[in-house]
Amino acid sequence: MNLYEAIFSRKSVRKFRMEAVEEDLLAEIGAFYSETPALYPGIETEIGIINNTDGKHPVSGLFKVSAPYYLSIYSEKRDRSLMNAGYLGEQLALFLMTRGLGSCFLGSAHLKKEEMTRGGKELVILLAFGKPAGSLTRRVSEAKREPMSRLCVYKDEPRSWMQDVLEAARLAPSALNTQPWRFVVTENRIHIFSKNRSVETLKKWDEFNFGVMFAHIMIVSEEKWLDLDLIRLENISQKNFRSNQYVLSAVMKNRP
User: Fold this and answer.
1) CA separation for the pair 219, 2 (Å, rounded)
2) Residues with Cβ < 8 Å from 212, sequence gap 6 or more?
3) pTM score > 0.85 for this model?
4) Is the alpha carbon torsion for 55, 49, 70, 115 positive or negative?
5) Which residue blocks in 75-159 are alpha helix, DSSP H?
6) pLDDT tens-digit series, residues 168-216
7) Is 185 helix (H, G, I), strand (E, B) or coil?
8) Of 179, 181, 245, 250, nearest to 219 (Cα)?
9) C-alpha distances out from residue 214 to 96, 172, 246, Å
10) What does the angle CA 134 – CA 148 – CA 106 come to, to the nearest 5 degrees?
């Protein structure tokens, strides 16, 4: 299984066997992170792995999960740093699945005070992971996601590559399964919007959510050999939209 295949069968795992993972596999996680391209390479990030197999290093906070390991993602605080962390975090979660490990994001979890920062970087999120106590996978039909008809507006007939990209984007996980993204399809572009929200706690994680979803888009792009760019188009960013906010566009540079 590769990252692309993992998109269609990964689920959030919240029950784990409190068993150790092989040291070689833990080293693989660090190696994968060091080789994974960021969405915004200029933003400094760092990860750590907390061993909780003895149950003596639990995390605190709402929706906490008891797991044998916690992967911590740190980032310097800059514009789009949460989006960048989501982009990296989802690739790590998918990689764990390819190695037979389940995981789930813990957005409200906290570590000890001295562990909340590292090298001037702040803790963004924890990823609980380990050997699952139950099933590791689910079928696409079991994913609780909005249908494409509610997420997408088609200005033109979607090309085959667009359908692949949109389905992977639709399956992206999001905080509280809010699925804040909306898509507008034109001839060779997918314009991506965020739903406007009035609840601040949901707004906080929308940027991270979009990073997760953009990871799915770019994994599909690599798998399908698409010359795809995620860029912000000024002619759209300057427009006002009542219910949505423009984020980025997926643009095909060479049309298939």
Assistant:
1) 10
2) 86, 87, 89, 90, 172, 173, 174
3) yes
4) positive
5) 81-98, 148-151
6) 999 999 998 999 999 999 988 999 999 876 445 556 789 999 999 999 9
7) strand
8) 250
9) 18, 9, 14
10) 40
Q: Scan for tokens 């389940």, then name that residue.
A: 102
| CB burial string 169-200: b at 16+ within 10 A, e below | bbbbbbbeeebbbbbbbeebbbbbbbeeeeee
Rounded CA-CA distance 175/208 in Å is: 9
Residue written as tokens 């001839």? Answer: 187
**Comparing C-alpha atoms, which of 6, 202, 186, 221 is closest to residue 96?**
6
Question: CA dihedral defined by 130, 136, 140, 141, rounded to 10 degrees?
Answer: -120
What is 112-127 written as a DSSP string?
A: -GGGSEETTEEEEEEE
